[in-house]
Amino acid sequence: MTLLKTLEEPPEHVKFILATTEVHKLPSTILSRCQRFDFKRISPEDIAKRLSFVADKENIDLTPEAAMLISRIADGALRDALSLLDRCASYGTEITEKVASDAAGIAGREHLFELVDAVISHDSPRALTIIDELYNNSCDMERLLSELLSHFRNMMVALTVPNFRELVICPDSEIEIIRRQAKSLTLESVLSCMDRIGDAIVAIKRGADRRTS
Known about the structure:
Blueprint: H1 2-8, H2 28-31, H3 44-57, E1 61-62, H4 64-74, H5 78-89, E2 94-95, H6 97-104, H7 109-120, H8 124-136, H9 141-160, H10 175-183, H11 187-205
Parallel strand pairs: 1-2
Helix pairs in contact: 3-4, 3-5, 4-5, 4-6, 5-6, 7-8, 9-10, 9-11
């Protein structure tokens, strides 16, 4: 009640700015007393451009692939992208895709594609070996699953949209890999894999073993 009264009759010199990512949790009594502005996620392309601009000003050699990887990890949040860029800069003034992967604690893209190849060929021993190596190298398993889910989503788009390039977020060098791997799968199998990966992400969030989920 005190907050409502303050919002209704604020001091002349005070402006309240309320920010939330879960606006649905705000009481209607609060919303009715506010002007609402909805901000959208920033596109990965725009984040990558901003990162390149900042890197240039700071005399940091940031490769386009690294900029795109950081922007994809940031998931629309420029502040998170800049924080990760700053973390990468602690590794040196040259930031490659591998440096960005190491700083974020995720698997390199080559490991990701190798893992998917093992899944496609039903090579369970190889897939488990890759996962074990990544786990022992302190790879973030939840982030690995998120990257896998994104990659399978790209393959789903490749299987359903003839000119899919504009609908996927990745460097040009990965397009042929996506196309090749997608051709080895049916749409149903891709969707099934996405469901299983989604279930694994939920299991990890609930505290399941990160190596076996």
